Structures are given as structure tokens and as C-alpha cells.
């Protein structure tokens, strides 16, 4: 595990393993979640990574869980198309690969507080970009960690956070259904088998009414017709009930 290869020298967290790669999604560049300065990178610290042994064998994919903007100090970087998590979909995505060798500074051992980081995390969550390497039951703790690091209190109950997470994390085999419903029926299901959805997808999949209230009318009409064509179950919202009264 990564923590076995990290040393705190009093100012920086230093990588003490043989070699490590951090994978910065191309999405981050488009969403103001990364700035590359060459010798350092300012990036939102929710990243997948792999540690390699002295024979070049890759360890399992891990997630670096520091949900706020941090500076990292890789030796070099390169863009690469990678299927990071093998699976049925065989999704190949583009990443900026940050490379670290023994003795490289990973990050500073203290993190500046900035309320803007809370908005960045919420944006990441609502766009359905939370890595599924994070167990479903840990997403709420990660959100609280983001708030604690940046000394922000939103003034809402935990229930609100839980409802948002439950709606965004979908059944990977049946996206119109929440993952909470699936794992509630069968607790033996892997906590990693959810599929994050963005707000647009949720509007499109939940019901015809929800789809037609969203911004992209053309896409939502197509989604609504598909709901009707395939006889999919629709979720009736509280607002829809009021309008129909």
C-alpha cells in the first residue's frame, strides 16, 4: 500500500518506494482541477495510482484520498491512454501520468485551507466523476474530510449528503436504479460495483417529467421516448405529484 512507502521529513511527504505513477484524468484539465507548472502540479488530490516494485511489476490500483487542491512534485509527466480498471466495459481513458521515484517529494505535509475546494468536490461529485476505487460506503466520509480540511460547515444534516450520494451512485447494470437499492437488498455485493452518474443522466433516467425539465431538450426527449419504448419504471418526484393534483 502507498502509506508503506511514504516518509514525513518535517516539511514534505516523500515517496520512498521504487517507482510510482499517479493518473490525472483528462477531465481534470477541462474542469480547473489541475494546473501543470512543470516542476510542480496543482491538482485535486483524488487520484488513482500504482506503486511498482524493483522488477517493474505494478501493484494494485489505489486511490489517493486527499479531496482538496494540493501541489505534487513528480520527476516527469506524459499523456497516456490507459484501461486503468480492467472490466466488462474495457474503458480506455486519457490520463496525465505523473511519475515518482525514490526520494521524490510527493506533497507538502500541511494543506492550505480554501473554501473553493468544497465547491470543486461538489462539482466532481455531481458530474459523476468520483473514482469507483473508492468504496460506496466511504464516499460520505470523503465528503466530510473535504469539509474538515477546508474548515467549512454547510449547515445541513447528514441525511442531505446521503440522499445526494444515493442518487448519484447508480446500479452499473441498471442505471435507472440507485446502487443503494441494490446493496440494500444484497449486502454481499461489492462496494465498488456502483456507477457514478452526472445530474443530466439522473434527470434523463428517472422519469419523463424530470427529463423534460432539464436544459438539453433534444437529448431529454430522446431519453423520455426510450423510457416509454422499453417500458422502464419511472420515479415520480414530489414536484410532479403537486403539479398533477
Polypeptide structure, described:
With 245 residues, the chain is α+β, with helices and mostly antiparallel strands. It folds into two domains: 107 residues, no CATH class; 129 residues, no CATH class. Helix content is 32%, strand content 29%. It has nine helices and twelve strands. The strands form three sheets. Strands 3, 4, 5, 6, 7 and 8 form a six-stranded antiparallel sheet that branches. It is globular. It starts with 5 loop residues before the first strand and ends with a helix. The model has no long low-confidence stretch (mean pLDDT 84).
What features would you highlight for this structure?
2 domains; globular; six-stranded antiparallel β-sheet; 9 helices; 29% strand
How far is it from the N-terminal to the C-terminal residue, by CA?
56 Å
Q: What is the gyration radius calculated from CA atoms?
A: 20 Å
| Uncertain residue segments | none
The total count of helices amounts to 9
Largest sheet: 6 strands, antiparallel
Strand content: 25-35%
Large-scale geometry? globular
Fraction of residues in H or I helices: 25-40%
Oligomer: single chain
DSSP strand tally: 12
Mean pLDDT: 84
**Total number of distinct structural domains:** 2
Structural class: alpha+beta
Brief digest:
By secondary structure, the chain is of the alpha+beta class. Helices cover 32% and strands 29% of the residues.
Amino acid at each position: 500500500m502507498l502509506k508503506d512507502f511514504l516518509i514525513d521529513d518535517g516539511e514534505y511527504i516523500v515517496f520512498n518506494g521504487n517507482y510510482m505513477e499517479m493518473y490525472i484524468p483528462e477531465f481534470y484539465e477541462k474542469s480547473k482541477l489541475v494546473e501543470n507548472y512543470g516542476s510542480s502540479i496543482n491538482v485535486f488530490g483524488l487520484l488513482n495510482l500504482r506503486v511498482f516494485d524493483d522488477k517493474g511489476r505494478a501493484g494494485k490500483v489505489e486511490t489517493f484520498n486527499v479531496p482538496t487542491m494540493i501541489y505534487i512534485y513528480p520527476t516527469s509527466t506524459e499523456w497516456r491512454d490507459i484501461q486503468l480498471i480492467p472490466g466488462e466495459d474495457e474503458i480506455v481513458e486519457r490520463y496525465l501520468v505523473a511519475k515518482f521515484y525514490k526520494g521524490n517529494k510527493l506533497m507538502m505535509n500541511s494543506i492550505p485551507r480554501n473554501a473553493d475546494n468544497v465547491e470543486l468536490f461538489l462539482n466532481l461529485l455531481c458530474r459523476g466523476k468520483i473514482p469507483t476505487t473508492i468504496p460506496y460506503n466511504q464516499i460520505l466520509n470523503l465528503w466530510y474530510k473535504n469539509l474538515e480540511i477546508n474548515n467549512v460547515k454547510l449547515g445541513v444534516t447528514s441525511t442531505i449528503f446521503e440522499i445526494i450520494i444515493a442518487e448519484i451512485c447508480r446500479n452499473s447494470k441498471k442505471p435507472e436504479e440507485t446502487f443503494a437499492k441494490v446493496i440494500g437488498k444484497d449486502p454481499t455485493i461489492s462496494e465498488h460495483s456502483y456507477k457514478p452518474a452526472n445530474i443530466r443522466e439522473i434527470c434523463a433516467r428517472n422519469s419523463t417529467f424530470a427529463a423534460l425539465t432539464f436544459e438539453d431538450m433534444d437529448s431529454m426527449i430522446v431519453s423520455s421516448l426510450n423510457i416509454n419504448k422499453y417500458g422502464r419504471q419511472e420515479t415520480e418526484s414530489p414536484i410532479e405529484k403537486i403539479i398533477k393534483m
